[in-house]
Write a structure and sequence with these properties.
This protein is an alpha/beta fold and 197 residues long. It has 2 domains: 12-120, 3-Layer(aba) Sandwich (Rossmann fold); 144-187, no CATH class. Helices cover 25% and strands 11% of the residues. It has 5 helices and 5 strands. The strands form 2 sheets. A 3-stranded mixed β-sheet has the order 3-5-4, with no helix packed on it. The protein is globular and about 60 Å long.
């Protein structure tokens, strides 16, 4: 795996203003697309695949999809003939409460036995509820599985709605099948309760 070496949230408006100013100052230098790599799990959710495709179109992503394990996918993508051969840094959504996230900083190189690049963790110190506050405040589209009680997405074979979000069937009369949306979860430690691994 990559290196596993006071919570505050960055101001999203400062970042977007800076980006807009850079584009206005020299539109020729501002990218028209961004490279992205989607590493699919062995049993992907169709909803996740559809969301990735719509996000690629919406955000003008030059998307590469790989069905290989993470290390192999990155090695191929970043290799001499791969589409990411000029990539030197990668934005990652890892937070401190994620597996292997506790010792990370905002910038970490990969371990020696991984393809070389700098991992940038812009939300490393955010809490789960802060991520959702940001998404909802800016009305950023998200995968519809999050509205069905999923809080951490893997594949269909190891991911289930989060039991901490199960509705009380006595209150809702739905036979216990309903789950509250992911943004109602408040505790970081409960985020991965719907994952088998």
């Amino acid at each position: 795996m990559p290196k596993n070496d006071a919570s505050s949230s960055p101001d999203p408006f400062t970042s977007s203003q800076t980006t807009a100013a850079a584009a206005a100052a020299d539109p020729e230098k501002f990218p028209t697309s961004f490279q992205a790599l989607y590493i699919r799990p062995p049993s992907p959710f169709p909803e996740v695949d559809a969301f990735v495709a719509s996000s690629a179109a919406q955000y003008r992503l030059d998307l590469t999809t790989s069905d290989r394990p993470m290390k192999a996918a990155l090695t191929e993508y970043l290799g001499a003939s791969g589409p990411g051969r000029v990539v030197r840094a990668v934005f990652v959504g890892t937070r401190r409460t994620d597996p292997h996230g506790a010792a990370l900083s905002h910038f970490d190189e990969t371990d020696d036995d991984w393809p070389r690049f700098m991992r940038i963790h812009p939300v490393i110190d955010w809490h789960y509820r802060e991520v959702w506050r940001f998404i909802r405040a800016l009305e950023i589209p998200y995968c519809p599985l999050y509205d069905k009680g999923y809080t951490s997405l893997g594949g269909t074979d190891d991911t289930h709605p989060n039991p901490a979000l199960k509705r009380d069937e006595r209150k809702f009369g739905d036979g216990g099948q309903g789950f509250r949306p992911a943004y109602e979860l408040m505790e970081d430690e409960e985020e991965r309760l719907g994952r088998d691994r």
